[in-house]
Amino acid sequence: MSVHERLREMGVELPDAAAPVASYQPVVVNGHTAYVSGQLPFVDGNLVTGKLGKDVSLERGQEAARACGLMILAQLEAAGLLERVSHMVKLGGFVASTPDFTDQPKVVNGASDLMFEVFGHPGKHARSAVGVPVLPLDAAVEVDAIVALKA
């Protein structure tokens, strides 16, 4: 089953790939590896902002991380690479949170679980989930990716 067929089966429509907010490329390919820049969480066209542990619930944070994952897929699609994904190698998750919030791994599961739902076993990946004091545009979550590509 193709990735597009799987997304249709899941009832998922990818968002439009977001334009960069600074001086960088959304996707860079080196050999058979794609590096996807950090993606911000847009839900229903609106950026999810705030801090976990203060004004963003765990559930909303997970939804935001899933939205970041969808944007990673959208960036791969825009680069013509979505059907060439061989394996999700690594996700890097950044969670804007208060000093006492310690559920960053649970938040980033929103993106990790999406990759498994879409790709099955090849969606399993290495990962980091880091708490930070602030993210660009006051985003609640940001996720980047390293992706192995088929030849």
TrEMBL record:
Pfam family membership, one: YjgF_endoribonc
Superkingdom as given in the UniProt entry: Bacteria
Stored Gene3D superfamilies: RutC-like
Endoribonuclease L-PSP/chorismate mutase-like domain boundaries: 6-141
Record protein name field: RidA family protein
UniProt cross-references to CDD domains, sorted A to Z: YjgF_YER057c_UK114_like_1
